[in-house]
Amino acid sequence: MVLQHPPPTSMEGSSSNEHIVMLPMMAHGHLIPFLSLAREIHRRKGFTVTIASTPLNIQYLRSTAGTEIKFAELSFGNADRGLLPDAENTENLTLDQIVNIFSASERLEAPFRQFLSEIVEKEGKPPLCIISDVFLGWAVGVAESMGTVNVTFTTCGAYGTLAYMSLWLNLPHRKTESEEFTLPGFPERCRFHISHLHRFVRMADGTDSWSRFLQPQISNSLQSFGCLCNTVEEIEPLGLECLRKFMKIPVWPIGPLLPSALLKKSPASAGQFYKHRAGKKPGMSMEKCLEWLDSQKPNSVLYVSFGSQNSISESHMKELASGLEGSGIPFIWVIRPPLGFDFRGEFRSEWLPEGFEQRTTEKNQGLLVKNWAPQLEILSHKSTGAFVSHCGWNSVMESLSQGVPIIGWPMAAEQTYNSKMLVEEMGVSVELTRGLQSEIGGEEVKRVIKMVMEEKGKGGEMRKKAAEIAERIAAATNDEEEGDDKGSSIQALDDFVSAVVRKRREIRT
Ligand code: UDP
């Protein structure tokens, strides 16, 4: 464990010399919003912000962060984790392996404690607060013992966070014979179905490895001083109301944590947003993607991507390809090896229908991007008209901030709950299918994407609603004017800082 950049000398009483320490879960979908939040706190408050994580994750973060954010490496021994020696991140792990890395995250407690002691020694006081991932609830005890407080940060939306927490804590499907059930924390009308549950939750009984990790971590996180949520007050009224009642602590919706140029909808230029992301190389140059998008009509392109760590089965891939080709709609599809194959391996053309790549290339219908695409540049381009997404929350926020409607194919984590909310509460999405084992044929793919890409009808309505959500997101993140025009997310960040400063005064007296 090494403190990479020693914090500046403390000047008691000067708020710009406060120090906040952040502890993300080791997954790209978490590192990206943690880094954005760190930047936002530093930019708006002038605080020193240190992100603590394992060496490889710090390497990713450092490759995109400027010098304004500090990093602390926490050692993460390789022995006996049921993982590859270089596995420090969920990237390229199967869902079955992810529980091992999640469970192993508890081993960061000792080096993290040691790191905080070093801060106390150097600065003469503990950090103003710890901002820890909702999955790292052990940080609550660490913060308390060091004389500070823990604020839990959920990188997901309010609805999805609540559904995820409540399902794991209550396992309601175990208490009924019915396939449909209500979920503590949600109103009666929001019924959940067994198919919303990933097989790990379905099988969970409190003694399995996921329950043994998640139940205590979530319960501990509920003991935090408050909760930062990567959402917007005005777009998730139901989710936030229910989450606040359930958690019984202040919830500050400070999202979406996206580059401000994206939120202000400045036209994209190659690499504009990319440098803000967590250091991954795109499978096709940004210039080429943007040039191709420039040659397409407004709102005509379908973007297809399943996030940073998911893929679909080989048979699903073939059906998706046949639906895309049959629809004639221009597309950009981020492809990686199908489930069951090494994601780090080469993509083989046999996983797609014979001649698919050649035909769609010759007709200039689509771009296949291997493994990783410049997603923000694509979503913010005027030619992009809809997004086939696994409904990971970052992807959802990125899409909605640009007014791009979604075709959901949720797979794991809280994605099915996000998808349910997008369909039922926001009306900006249709669900193509759900889960990894679902039945879906090329004809159905073609029907759904044609419907959503249509200018009028259902697709038009979804696009209109997505545009309204984009406006609310832009208003919530408006930091140009003080007073009444100050966006709710900007205000929430101010409220969070005022609350922790007040709390620190209380602890010290
Ligand atoms: N992402 C990207 N290019 C890709 C795939 C993903 O830039 O080809 C980024 C995407 O913009 C988002 C993150 O990776 O910020 C994925 O987070 P999300 O919450 O959507 O899904 P997860 O990967 O956590 O399942």
Automatic annotation (TrEMBL):
Q: Which SUPFAM superfamilies match?
A: UDP-Glycosyltransferase/glycogen phosphorylase (SSF53756)
Q: Does the keyword Cell inner membrane apply?
A: no
| Domain Glycosyltransferase N-terminal: from-to ranges | 20-259
Q: Which PROSITE patterns match?
A: UDPGT
Entries under CDD domains matching the protein: GT1_Gtf-like
Q: Which UniProt keywords apply?
A: Glycosyltransferase, Transferase
State the InterPro entries in the record.
Glyco_transf_N (IPR058980), UDP_glucos_trans (IPR002213), UDP_glycos_trans_CS (IPR035595)
Q: Which GO terms describe its molecular function?
A: UDP-glucosyltransferase activity
Which EC numbers does the record give? Answer: 2.4.1.-
What Gene3D superfamilies does this protein's entry cite? Answer: Glycogen Phosphorylase B
Which Pfam family, an example, fits this chain? Glyco_transf_N
Q: Which family does it belong to?
A: Belongs to the UDP-glycosyltransferase family.
This chain's protein is named Glycosyltransferase
Question: To which species is this protein native?
Answer: Rubroshorea leprosula
